[in-house]
Amino acid sequence: MLNDDINDVRIGALHGIQTFNKVLTLNDYEVDTVLFNLNEDNPRLRQEIYKFFAETTVSSGALF
């Protein structure tokens, strides 16, 4: 869903994943998949990604 052409679908996917953040830890591949979306020129999508990472636990901070 994070690869969809429609930005609202990608934002919805971020919100869906975010609901599991209390029990999930993202690995490097998953973090990279989300970070790839920062290449898009869409301020709303970028803001949602920043919010997503503010509430997400990652296994390693190497990608940041």
Strand content: under 5%
Low-pLDDT residue intervals, each spanning 5 or more residues: none
Number of strands: 0
Largest sheet: none
Which structural class do the helices and strands define? mainly alpha
Q: Could you tell me the radius of gyration in angstroms?
A: 11 Å
H/E topology pattern: HHH
Total tally of structural domains: 1
**Average residue-wise pLDDT:** 85
What general form does the structure show?
A: globular
State the helix count.
3
Percent of residues in helices: 40-55%
State the end-to-end CA separation: 22 Å
Please provide a written account of the structure.
The structure is a single chain. The longest helix has 12 residues. The chain is mostly helical. The chain is globular and about 30 Å long. The N and C termini lie far apart (22 Å). It contains three helices and no strands. The mean pLDDT is 85. The chain is 52% helix and 0% strand. It has one domain. Helix 1 packs parallel to helix 3.
Summarize the structure.
The chain is mostly helical and 64 residues long. The chain has helices at 7-18, 28-36, 43-54. The longest helix has 12 residues, at 7-18.
Features of the shown structure:
64 residues, mainly alpha, 52% helix, 0% strand, globular
Write the layout of secondary structure elements.
Elements: H1 7-18, H2 28-36, H3 43-54
